[in-house]
Structure formats: C-alpha cells, structure tokens
C-alpha cells in the first residue's frame, strides 16, 4: 500500500523540524527516544556511561571498528562520534526503519565512518514483516569488528533468535574481539536477592529456558535462565569474562520513581571474547 502524498509531505515537514532541533540537542525527539525505554530520557548521560564502560573494561580504542546490534536511536553512536577518530568505524543495525532513518539523517550524514542498516527481521514489538531472527545473517563480512555491543537487544529475542545472534557475533568479530551484551537473567537465587520483585510478577509466562512478560508479544520482554544462557556462549565459541555484572546503564537507580521497571533489577552485562584464532 502506498502512502498518500499528503501524509508523506507531513512526515517530511515533521522530520525537518525535528532534525533542526536534533542538530542543537544532539539527540532524537522525545517522541522517538521514549520508544527505546523511559531510561533514555537520560539519553546523553547513559550513552556516555556506556562509552566509558566500553573504554575502561572492554578495550574500546579510538580506531576500533564497533558493531551496535539493535542500535535504536543512536544512544551509543552519538557519544562514539567523539570517542572514535576518523580511523575508527561504527556500524549499527536495527529492525525499526524510522530509527535507522533518524540515525542516517542526524549521525551518518555528518560522520562518514558511521553507517546504519535496516535489518528486515520480524518481531512482535513492531515490525511484522521480514525474516525470522533465527535465520538472520548479519550483513557484514566475517572477522570485521573489534567490538560488538548489544544493549537490551537480547531482552527482545527468544531462544532460537538469541542463539543465532550469538553465532553471528562470533562470525563477524575479529579473532580475540570483544562482545558486550545486556540480558535479563535469572537463576535459582535471584528472587531472594531482589525481594518483592518475583520472577512470576515480572515475567508471568514460563517457557523453560526463558520467561515472557507478554505471551501475545513474546519479544516485548524476555528473561533467560542463567543455566541455559551460559552454555550458549560456549557453544557459539564465546568465552565469558567474569564477573557477570549488574547492568549500570539499565540500573533501576536510573528510573524515575513513578516508572514501574522491576525487570531492570534482573539486567546484567556480560563481557565475552571471540576465539583468538578463526
Ligand atoms: C531497548 S532498545 C535498545 C536500543 C539501544 N541498543 C540502546 O541501548 O539505546 C532495543 C532495540 O532493539 C531493536 N531490536 C529488537 N529486535 C531486534 C532484532 N531482532 N534485531 C535487531 N534489532 C532489534 C529494537 O528496535 C530497539 O531499537
């Protein structure tokens, strides 16, 4: 179905107005920021925190080639435009075309070493065409990236999609490359550690290795059992660098008091490395 001309014109006018504001604020309009999480109302601070984390603990260098999986609206990309030199490179992809469009118009247009790609992958959180996440081949050559990052991406995949994405990460990382990902993760001790926020309340639907918040839209919010998750890294050839940390960026401490975000108590960051030889 083609978009009527008046709608296309209205969209173009709105984009131009919002882009003019983005050029001053260096962030997307609130209309779009809210789609990735209420946390990203603190877009600059949390993005810079992630860059600092990648630099201090994950080997990010000014000339790294970085992959951002589920890049959203450039929360990591914007601070990377100053952290990476002209010799560094950034690639990000996401299933949401309007997010990629914003990043193209407002980041890639000004930084030739930044590239954004739309991934035509089907998901129940808003992109109902495209291929299954379990079959998606990342659009990059083998051994391309020094560092791959996936911030709250695996919170939107179930087991088959998640295992395929882990395998794809191993394929596109250079030997010894670093992979940083956040997950909702639980184990038999977790509930005791986060009293008052039981797994059953946060993710009522149990599916063995994972739990869902919403059965009709499975990818809306997924939590994985640590007993299942750790071996998936090993099967993909990725070695986890201990410790697995509570996630700083997705910390509930960042959430304004009125936002109910009990799932964030279960958010962890896993740092892993690809095999030293391919
Ligand atoms: C919670 S947002 C996080 C965005 C960004 N990583 C950040 O930290 O600001 C999750 C992102 O993953 C994207 N996403 C969901 N499923 C995906 C998939 N199968 N492949 C790629 N991106 C996906 C969503 O469109 C969304 O932009």
Automatic annotation (TrEMBL):
GO terms for molecular function: methyltransferase activity. The keyword Methyltransferase applies. Its EC number is 2.1.-.-. One of its GO terms (biological process) is methylation. Pfam families: Methyltransf_25. The keyword Transferase applies. It comes from the Bacteria. Residues 66-177 form the Methyltransferase domain. InterPro entries: Methyltransf_25, Methyltransf_Superfamily, SAM-dependent_MTases_sf. Keywords: Methyltransferase, Transferase. This is Class I SAM-dependent methyltransferase.
